[in-house]
Write a structure and sequence with these properties.
Layout: E1 2-11, E2 14-22, E3 29-39, H1 43-49, E4 80-87, E5 99-102, E6 109-113, E7 117-119, H2 126-129, H3 132-145, E8 152-156, H4 160-169, E9 176-180, H5 184-192, E10 197-199, H6 204-215, E11 222-227, H7 234-241, E12 242-250, H8 266-269, E13 273-276, H9 292-306, E14 312-317, H10 321-330, E15 337-341
Parallel strand pairs: 8-9, 8-11, 9-10, 11-12, 12-13, 14-15
Antiparallel strand pairs: 1-2, 3-4, 3-6, 3-15, 4-5, 5-7
Helix pairs in contact: 3-4, 3-9
C-alpha cells in the first residue's frame, strides 16, 4: 500500500493535504510517483480564490476531475510529470521507470489508466514536459484562430498560455504581431520568445503608435486578436482593436466574473467574429484531420523547440504549496511560472 498525499482546496485562499491509501494498480492501470507539477495562474487561481461558478462539474473531460464539482472541497491541477512505479498485468511492463505526463491533480502519487498518460522521450526534461497542457492549449488556440499569411495580430495577455501562443506565432509569416501586457517581466519574456513588439496597454504613446499602424490597413485594425488576460474588460479592448470582419479568439475563462460588452457599435456594424476556444475539444471542422494524439505530438515538438522551462521563475516544495498560491495571488508581477517539486 502506498500513501498518497493529495492537495485539496478547502475554502477560498486555503489548501490542505489529505492522505489516501492507494492499493495495487488494476490490470490496465499504473502507479505514478510525481516528480513535479505546474500551478496554473489562470483557472487554478479561480479555484484558490473561490471564483469558480458554483455547483458545476469541475471538468468532465479530465478523468481525475470528472466526478468533482466546483464546490469546496475540491482538487485541481492538470500538469503533472512523474515516474511509473508499478503497472498492472495487462500493461506493458516496459513502462515501469518511464517518465510520463498526465492531466492529474497535485498529489505525491496517483493511479490511473495506462492510456491516460503521455510517455515522454528521455530527451525531454520533466520541467519542460510540465508545460505540455499549456502548450496543447496554445496549439488549440492557434488552430482555432487560423492565422493567415500577412495577418496583423494582437495578443492580449502574456501569462504562460499567452507567452506560448506568442512563441508559436513568432514562427508564422505575419505582417505584425503585438503582445499587450502590463507587467514588464512578461513583456520581456515575450520578446525573448520571439515577439518583436511587446507593449504596455497603459502606455498611451505605444498604444497610439500601434493603433496608427493597424488603422493603416484596409480593414482598419487587427485581422486577429487573442484575448488571454482572464480579465473581462479586455474583451472591449479586443473589439476596439479588431478590423472589419476580423476575429477575436477568447481563451480566457472568467469564472463568476461578469462580462459587460459594447456590442452596439463596431461589433454589430463591422461583422467582427468572437470565437470561443477551449482545449477540452477540437473544432468540429478540424476533427477529420486532427485528434488529441496529433495535437499532443505537435505540442511535444514545440516544447522541444520553444524550451518553455525558461519561463519557470519559482520552484516551490510541494509541502509549501500554500506559499506558491499566495505568491501568485499577491505578487503576479514577480512570477511567470511556479512549479511544485516533490521529494524523490
Amino acid at each position: 500500500m502506498i500513501k498518497s498525499q493529495q492537495l485539496w482546496f478547502t475554502a477560498p485562499y486555503s489548501v490542505e493535504y489529505w492522505e489516501q491509501q492507494l492499493g495495487e494498480p488494476g490490470p490496465d492501470e499504473i502507479l505514478v510517483r510525481t516528480l513535479c507539477s505546474a500551478v496554473s495562474a489562470g483557472t487554478e487561481m479561480l479555484a484558490y480564490r473561490g471564483q469558480l461558478p458554483p455547483d458545476q462539474a469541475l471538468d468532465v473531460n479530465l478523468e481525475c476531475l470528472e466526478n468533482q464539482s466546483t464546490s469546496y472541497p475540491l482538487q485541481y491541477g492538470y500538469a503533472n510529470v512523474g515516474r511509473v512505479e508499478a503497472a498492472g498485468d495487462k500493461v506493458d511492463q516496459g513502462l515501469i521507470g518511464r517518465h510520463v505526463f498526465a492531466l492529474q491533480s497535485h498529489a505525491t502519487h496517483y493511479i490511473c489508466k495506462a492510456g491516460a498518460v503521455v510517455k515522454l522521450a528521455e530527451t525531454i526534461d520533466p520541467e519542460a514536459a510540465v508545460f505540455l497542457a499549456n502548450m496543447e492549449t496554445a496549439v488549440n488556440l492557434v488552430l482555432d484562430a487560423k492565422p493567415a499569411l500577412g495577418d496583423q495580430v494582437v495578443i492580449l495577455g502574456q501569462g504562460v498560455v499567452g507567452l506560448l501562443v506568442s512563441a508559436i506565432l513568432s514562427r508564422f509569416p505575419l505582417s505584425a504581431c503585438y503582445a499587450l501586457e502590463p507587467l514588464q517581466q512578461r513583456r520581456d519574456a515575450a520578446v525573448q520568445l520571439g515577439i518583436e513588439k511587446a507593449i504596455d496597454p497603459d502606455n498611451e504613446d505605444d498604444m497610439g503608435t500601434m493603433r496608427s499602424v493597424l488603422d493603416d490597413t484596409p480593414g482598419r485594425g487587427a485581422d486577429l486578436v487573442f484575448e488571454l488576460t482572464g480579465a473581462p474588460d479586455a474583451l472591449n479592448l479586443a473589439l476596439s482593436l479588431c478590423a472589419y470582419t476580423g476575429r477575436i479568439v477568447v481563451g480566457s475563462w472568467y469564472g463568476i466574473k461578469p462580462v459587460t460588452l459594447d456590442l452596439g457599435g463596431r461589433f454589430h456594424r463591422e461583422r467582427i467574429e468572437i470565437i470561443s476556444s477551449q482545449v477540452s475539444t477540437i473544432s468540429p471542422e478540424l476533427t477529420g484531420r486532427w485528434d488529441r494524439k496529433r495535437r499532443f505530438v505537435t505540442a511535444l515538438e514545440l516544447i522541444e523547440s520553444v524550451k518553455p522551462e525558461q519561463l519557470i521563475t519559482h520552484r516551490v516544495a510541494y509541502a509549501c504549496a500554500q506559499e506558491a498560491y499566495k505568491l501568485l495571488d499577491e505578487s503576479p508581477d514577480k512570477v511567470l511560472q511556479v512549479i511544485l517539486t516533490y521529494p524523490h
